[in-house]
Amino acid sequence: MTKGFPKDFLWGGATAANQFEGAWNEDGKGVSTADVTTHGTHTTPRLVTYTLPDGSLEASMMFNGFEVPEGTTFKPDENYLYPNHDGIDFYHHYQEDIALFAQMGFKCFRLSIAWTRIFPNGGIDDEQPNEAGLKFYDDVFDECIKYGIEPVVTISHYETPIALTHAWNSWADRRTVDCFVRYCEVIFKRYQTKVKYWMTFNEINCISRAGWMSAGIATKERAVLMQAAHHQFVASAKAVLLGHEINPDFKIGCMLAYPLVYPYSCNPNDVLMTWKSASTSYFFTDVQCRGYYPSYMLKKFEREGINIVMEDGDRELLMQGKVDYLAFSYYMSNVVCTDPSITDTVGGNLFGGLKNPYLKASDWGWQIDPTGLRIALNYLYDRYQIPLFIVENGLGAYDKVEADGSINDDYRIDYLREHIVEMEKAINEDGVDLMGYTTWGCIDLVSASTGEMAKRYGFIYVDKHDDGSGTYQRSKKKSFDWYKKVIATNGIDLD
After folding, report:
1. Domains of the chain by range and CATH?
2. Which residues of the chain have pLDDT under 70?
3. How far is CA 119 from CA 127, 129, 239, 322, 414, in A?
């Protein structure tokens, strides 16, 4: 039996501009939703800060959904810490960081473009693109290409221009579609010879639970969030068609946060609940991969009294603008149960659930389930029959710097090894078409959910801490050389 991975497999690592780039207000960059989101912890929620029309300062929990009166201004408040402002300062360290990725042998590097670096106000009123922002990504992509590293670019990754929120509550309004498509046109044309792989929206399904983080929307109303999701579907389809017109060799995918869901028992009601829970994520990829709204969600909208406003031609557009591949994040699995006496819960990547007694959990309570990744790959490939791309998988943990400077993160090596083993089985035993694997994050960065630096993911340690202190010095963890060996042997040597 064949072992290892396809010869053109895309090994690499993943990041996001708002979590590691820094330089939040340099060289003409505008303010994004991430720039007004505070530091948090495992037990303390991140807040969104703003000024009400009467001048009073307020803050709301990022994940809960919130409403604000017209005339509210979202902006930083000097009483809070905003870790995204600095990140790990990739903006001034990109040459050093990409050189380290090259040392590991990266075949690809997933990163995002900060929309507000290109259009500081999101592209409202014929705003002209910011040349300094365009030049920065030219330099980053050139540095990748110098080492033979394929850039894999997320177009919108949790940092909607705040100007769009102020103007019309961002994606709640159809006008944001036009702004997004114009932004896509600029970057597609500018980087058409440098970038082949694109993704339209990071973890698009998270809009249903994190409207602010995902789409810059201040609302608690599900109907508004679902209308915003439709606008993102339309924007994605238009981007796919536009990108293929500009460069037919572009590969443009969608990206899903995929927490595999298990029933707590074989009780048929638990099994049914599992399907209902999973379908809330499948809905998004059903639209982007199949090109139409699934019947189960149309019936659900009908029961909830939600009427999705579509313009003439939207249905045809969704069918024509289907994505080329499906990218997804996988960190853990969840459990659901209809028995109200089962109450022991665990955390997760926006999607928490009940504790699975068969699994261990990370320091942040995320259940570790390598076999679940193989199951997820089979579920997704069977459903859509298009190439898959794992663009986030990793272990957030407390890393200790020893007296001699070493960082012995064997726990991270174990986590990644076990997941890679299951990937290989999915390819060679199950026949799944898997394009690549980019670990989250290949270098330490700010956690999206908690805003922490203490929750570290990378192969590279960055001397930056939650109180804002640090030298930004980079140092290799034990996992650095391990992953280098994995890539060099194309997934054969995992010891």
Report:
1. 10-488 (3.20.20.80)
2. 1-2, 348-351
3. 7, 5, 17, 26, 42
pTM score, two decimals?
0.97
How many residues make up the chain in this entry?
495
- pLDDT digits 0-9 by tens, 295-344: 999 999 999 999 999 999 999 999 999 999 999 999 999 999 999 999 88
pLDDT of residue 154: 98
**Residue range 468-492, pLDDT digits in tens:** 999 999 999 999 999 999 999 999 9
Active site residues: 203, 392
Q: Which two tokens stand for residue 244?
A: 């293929």
Please give the order of strands across the beta sheet that includes 47-51: 57-61, 47-51, 73-74
Closest of 261, 236, 106, 251 to residue 183, by C-alpha = 236
pLDDT tens per residue across span 217-243: 999 999 999 999 999 999 999 999 999
Strands 73-74 and 47-51: antiparallel
Q: What is the distance in angstroms between the CA of the first residue and the CA of the last residue of the chain?
A: 20
Encoded tokens for 446: 């700010």
| Residue 76 near residue 49, CB atoms below 8 Å | yes
